[in-house]
Each structure stands twice: as C-alpha cells, then as structure tokens.
Amino acid sequence: MVDNAKGFFPIILVVFLLRSFIAEPFQIPSSSMRPGLIVGDFILVNKFTYGIRVPVLNKVMVPVHEVARGDVAVFNFPPNPRVDYIKRVIGLPGDTVEYRNKSLTINGKAVPDVADGTYDYLEQGLAMIRNDQYIETLPSTPEAKTYKVLKIPQAPVYDPAQVRDFPYRDNCQYAEDGFVCKVPQGHYFMLGDNRDNSLDGRYWGFVADDLLVGKAFLIWMNFGDFSRIGMKIE
C-alpha cells in the first residue's frame, strides 16, 4: 500500500504543477461569449501567458506576456473569487472605455464593427433568440484583434437594476444610452461577446490583476458537437 502511494505521488505532483502553472481545463456554462464559445465547450486556459504566479496569492513571480486588449481571459469573479468567469479584455489599466448605443469607444477612438448577418440560437429553457452579428476590431498590441459579437437591436445597453456597488465605482458614469469607465491601475475591464446577454464589467466593475487565471486558447471537447474539437479561441 505504501509503495503504491509512493508511485502515485510523482503523477499527482505533475498534475498539480501543470494545473498551477501551465494549463487548466474549464467548461463554458453560459451563452455570454457566443458566438465564439457556446454552452458545453470544454476549453484549455494557458496560465503561463500572464506570468508564473505564486499559487493561492496569484501574484506574478516571473512576468511572461502582458494582458492584451481582445484576449479571452478566465478570472476569479470579483464579487465571489471562488467562481471562475470568462470574458474578453476590453480595457487595460488607464484606458477610458465608453459603450453607448451599442457602439464601443476606447480612449476616444471608435472601435470598428461591421454588420455580418444574423445569428440565432436556442437558449436553454427559452425560445429561439435572434441577434444581429458584427465583426469587431479592437486596437491591440502587437496587432488588432478581430472577433464576432452579438447584439439585440431592441435590447437596452444595460440593465440599471443589475449595476452593483463595486470598488472604483466612481470611475464609471452611467446614462440612459450607455456608460463610460476609466480603468484604474492594476485592473482590467471585461465584456462578453454576447453583448445583450452577458453579466460583465458594466455591472460588477473591474478585474484586479491578481484575479486573473489565464488566457483561453483552445476548445478541446464538446460532447454535443464534435466539430468544435480543436477550434482555436480568437
């Protein structure tokens, strides 16, 4: 029994190191990142991308790459860090993010979006949802990030009843047609690609650097749609 336990220890250690520093699997639980990610996708998250971090404290020991606008990032949910969220990085520290009448502006410059037809999907327990689909191009480094987003024309820009009190709340101003937020240092602003069906930064504020888990990069399984296996996350 003791010998068997010793034999398993190296395997356990390798798994621990891989999950702590290199990559970790996650499952997509909602439609907030459609059309790119759908319910049932199992994804891999590169925990090395944003630097080697001290386990538990999640402080960067060895920097590797900076967080970039347009990254699809997994992070600990600010109001409840035991819960993992996935959204797209829209604003970096010091950025001014404005979202009015379904149009995004970063530091005073409009983010281009081009109409790309419609996108319909069946939400679990609900009727078919029809969205307008757009190709959005976000300024980033070393190159701009292009991806698809969904919008429902008749839906409001945000639901005022869901806006919480959050740290640096005074950095955001809300109006009927949208909002503007100044991202504090050491923090990031996140939005879901399914803009009118996403609980994101417009409601709960900013993500601190020490809440970042890693960058999503690959769909490795979807038991309901095998054609999605191996798809790169843009």
Automatic annotation (TrEMBL):
The active site is at residues 32, 87. Its EC number is 3.4.21.89. It is a single-pass type II membrane protein. Keywords: Hydrolase, Protease. It comes from the Bacteria. It is an enzyme of class 3 (hydrolase). It catalyses: Cleavage of hydrophobic, N-terminal signal or leader sequences from secreted and periplasmic proteins. It is found in: Membrane. GO terms for biological process: signal peptide processing. CDD domains: S26_SPase_I (cd06530). Residues 5-221 form the Peptidase S26 domain. GO terms for cellular component: membrane. GO terms for molecular function: serine-type endopeptidase activity; signal peptidase activity. InterPro entries: LexA/Signal_pep-like_sf, Pept_S26A_signal_pept_1, Pept_S26A_signal_pept_1_CS, Pept_S26A_signal_pept_1_Lys-AS, Peptidase_S26. Belongs to the peptidase S26 family. This is Signal peptidase I. The gene is lepB.
